[in-house]
Amino acid sequence: MVEQQGPQRAVTSRDIIELRDFGDPWQDPSMERPFALSPDRRHIAIALRRADISSNSYCYGILLLSLDDGTRRLLDVGGEPLTMSSDYFGRADKPNGTVTSSPLAWSPDGQWVAYMRRDHGRTQVWRATLEGNTAEQVTHAPVDVRRFSWSSDGTAIRFTTRPGIPDAIATIAEEGRSGFHFDERFWPLSADRPLPQGDVPFVEQTIDLTTHAVSSVQASSVRASGKDNAVARPDDPATLAWLDKDQPTAFLSPIRLKTSSEGGEKVCSAPACTNVTGFWWDRDGTILFLRDDSYSGGGRLSLYRWRPGPMSPVRLWQTDALLIGCVLLEPSLLCAQEAADQPRRLVRVAVNDGAITPFFDPNPEWIAIRTGSVETLAVVSADGAPGFARLVLPPSHHPGEHHPLVVVQYTSRGFLRGGTGDEYPIHLLADRGYAVLSFHKPPQPGADPPSPDLDSFVRRNLAGLAERQRNFTALDAAIDAAIARGAVDPERVAITGLSDGASTVAYALLQSRRFATAILSTCCDEPSFTQYLSGPAYAANTEKWGYPGYGEEGFWPEYSLAQNAEQVATPPILIQASDEEYRMALETVAALHAAQRPIDMYVFPNEMHVKWQPEHRAAIYARVIDWLDFWQYGKEDAAPVKQEQYRRWHALAESVPARASALPGP
């Protein structure tokens, strides 16, 4: 919890949107380390970023922190937003809009920090000196650099590019002169032409830091041993510890801790030795490891000590805090840490008792922000899967008060910002008088037992709508638990979601009458999306997974909002979509409009699956609050610019059906 010192003030949208961040935004304890420790273990480098609403941009900087005395200084400032992309169902470099920071790597001699920086629309490798204020661009590739590493002697940097992408784009443009052939290269949801395919190769090169000569990297003939994450015991380099899959060929197999020495391999067979997010050799030959107790512990992490052999590990402590990328600096772990009301910072965590001591907080102003109480609610789905949620009450809450409830999805680890996609500002909503239920969905049915491959995994999740049913019943139980606390008005429950969370919303609206309104960031899983808006390649996958084919009914009567528009009286729905994905909503919007159901949609330009522009996030936050205030409190913002918005919403209010008749049955 944040230590409250002195008078506090209400949180604002700007406070949340313009927080200083570092590392990937994912709140997963097993994700890549969001900071870099120098070889002499005396300095930390982090890549800071901060959104700026007024300029609709981001500020980036490379910060050096001394572990000796805590002093800090910037090694470099500048650059454009770095966003994530991946190969998606055969398409190369599909961006998703998630803004992140560069990975960092120290030179072997500890005198330089290398990182990636984007300028003028191109990402290159840069380096900055530990001493002095010199930052310089290292690579000048004609395309983006994707990843990099230092040579073992520190005289060169190895980097990876994908130079075939511009060539593929040029070939597609040439094809357009005689018309594009409509085939598996199309993604009609967001593009009117074929897209480069995922078979475009990556190219690895090396740049000599003295001569600046660039050469190709020879393919290595050495095969991975399966122990590429192995860590040697400091006093016995022949003794190794590593993480390995329980079922090597399975999809999402549990990961287990193992060791090997001259005496052979030892496997930690205890249940605690799975879901390990980090491990370290201690001086006495034991292994310290962090375990993710997401579901059994309501999102907690536990530190264990294990002496390789038949004895079970011993748990030292458990914490509600999210710890990411820890390194052992005895007698503490140095970690990135978040709490429900604490943005990411660097802390020392005592090995013996888990006591947390702040080391560097990039957002010291947050201590002046007023936040409400947070309670963890453990829940179980109808089929017995564990889940949990965080219930946040308004800072001004008094016993006996009943607040409207807003459901935010679909993960709830670490700092409660705005849910997956960051569009529903939890602490801001609480300060406005809402109780907020931050829901963390249960594990997917296809994961236990592990599926042999991705296709089997998805088929198991989809069969009988097993995943949707599991998520909904766990969420329903979480809402019941929140209401049972006596601070929630059960007649004023709103539900929100993006991506998988939006699918949960659609399913929930067809299963329950308890929701007074809904807000979607993406919409919707309908026949039009799976059968033709996503293109031939994705449609072939969905049929393989068990989606109904074109013209088939299948499970759509239990899942499609569009097909139930006439039968189900949906509550007022707001959609705030990106221009890349709004076409997914067209079938739903048209069907609900035709059935005179209350629905409104906004489309944000130059956005992707996750909306990355700060001014758009500010507008989304504002409209979320306006919509909730209008439908839950009957309140309106008097700003002249918003009067057209309220005119439309008043017209929608005339078509709101009675919730009591939304579904048949009790």
UniProtKB/TrEMBL annotation:
Swiss-Prot/TrEMBL keywords: Hydrolase, Protease, Serine protease
SUPFAM superfamilies, A to Z: alpha/beta-Hydrolases (SSF53474), DPP6 N-terminal domain-like (SSF82171)
Carries keyword Disulfide bond?
no
Asked if Chloroplast is a keyword of the record, the answer is no
Residue intervals of the Peptidase S9 prolyl oligopeptidase catalytic domain: 470-629
Return the PANTHER family for the record: DIPEPTIDYL PEPTIDASE FAMILY MEMBER 6, SERINE PEPTIDASE S9 FAMILY MEMBER
Q: What is this protein called?
A: Atxe2 family lasso peptide isopeptidase
